[in-house]
Each structure stands twice: as C-alpha cells, then as structure tokens.
C-alpha cells in the first residue's frame, strides 16, 4: 500500500538523520579517508538509491500461487518492468548494493590493501555469510546483523592493521554479497515474491550495514 511504503520511507529517513547527528557515518568514512563532501554525497546516494531496483534477469517460479502481490512490494518498483505470471525478477538495489560495491572497487584500486589479506578475508566472510544466512519467505535472505562486520573487523586488525578500515569495509561488503546473496541465487525462488532485489532493503541491508559497522569496529 502507498501509505505503508511512505511510512517505511519516513522511518528510513529518520534512521539516517539520527545516524548523521551522532556522526557515525562521518566517523566511518573519515577512517576510510573520504572527505566530508564525498561522505554527504554517498549518504544522499544511498538514501535515494535504496528505492531504486535495477532488473538483471528473470527466473521461473514453480509455485506461482504462493507469490505475494505487488501491493506488498516497494511502490517505486512499478517504475520498472513488472514481473509476469510464473516469473520472478532478480534485481540489484542501487543504494544497498551498487554504491557499496563501487566503493569497494575504488578502495581496491588504491592498492593500499594487501591482495593476499583481502583474498583471505573475503573468502572467510563469504563462507561465514553462507553458513549463517537463511532464506526467509516473502522477506529476503537474512543473517545475524553483527556477525559478519565483527569478524571482518577482527580479520582486518590481524591481517593488515595499518589499513584495517579499508580491509574491513571491502571484505565485509564483498563477503556478504558473495556468501549470502550470490551463493544463494539458486534458492531465491523460495522467497515467494515477484521481485528479489540484492541489497534491496537499502540502508537496512546486510551488505550496506556490514561495511559501515566493520569500519567502526576496526
């Protein structure tokens, strides 16, 4: 319903305002070497992008009668191609996936993270995320919120203490994306929804929050 979508959007906006006021995002991005201007741009992009899902491909659904209706989905999705009967659209969320992954690629391009340390950390977080994540019907793929960022921060402090923040963010984001989302792509038809969006919860998604929390802990 439009009213429910509006309430969710307002709650997300309020959540962002609170976090900005206590400077959590500023602290995290400062540790990553980003300027206040870049930090603000990322925050705005993440907030706006949390309502934008970009379709990738479609999957056949074995039991279409179990699908929830579009009225239960994000209203903004209707701006894009709707799914057809017996089909599920797999998409990526701009704010909850594309922006965090883009930031990871930027940090990797700086060549400040030891490649071996990065590989070890990503593999460890990917395995942890796969083992601890579960498909939740009509909701998405869930996992303990603080588990991945905590392990990412600890690994970063052990493997590369001089660049712990960058390693924690990059391994946390990419590890959760690979382990909890990509490795479970063959199970998403169990969600019982016409849309499966990677990073689709935007600011509340595991991919986004893992990176922020990992940096704060590192």
Can you describe what's shown?
This protein has one domain (2-217). The strands form two sheets. A three-stranded mixed sheet has the order 1-2-5. Mean pLDDT is 76; it is low at 64-80. It has helices spanning 2-21, 24-31, 36-49, 94-109, 115-132, 147-159, 164-181, 206-217, and strands at 53-60, 87-93, 134-136, 140-142, 195-198. Helix 2 crosses helix 8 (206-217), helix 4 crosses helix 8 and helix 5 packs across helix 7 (164-181). By secondary structure, it is mostly helical. The protein is globular.
Overall mean pLDDT = 76
The geometry reads as globular
Strand percent estimate: 5-15%
Order of helices and strands: HHHEEHHEEHHEH
- Give me the side-by-side strand order of the main sheet: 1-2-5
How far is it from the N-terminal to the C-terminal residue, by CA? Answer: 40 Å
Summarize the entry for a quick read.
The protein has one domain (2-217). Helix content is 55%, strand content 11%. The chain has helices at 2-21, 24-31, 36-49, 94-109, 115-132, 147-159, 164-181, 206-217; strands at 53-60, 87-93, 134-136, 140-142, 195-198.
SSE blueprint:
Blueprint: H1 2-21, H2 24-31, H3 36-49, E1 53-60, E2 87-93, H4 94-109, H5 115-132, E3 134-136, E4 140-142, H6 147-159, H7 164-181, E5 195-198, H8 206-217
Parallel strand pairs: 2-5
Antiparallel strand pairs: 1-2, 3-4
Give structural attributes.
218 residues; mainly alpha; three-stranded mixed beta sheet; 11% strand; globular
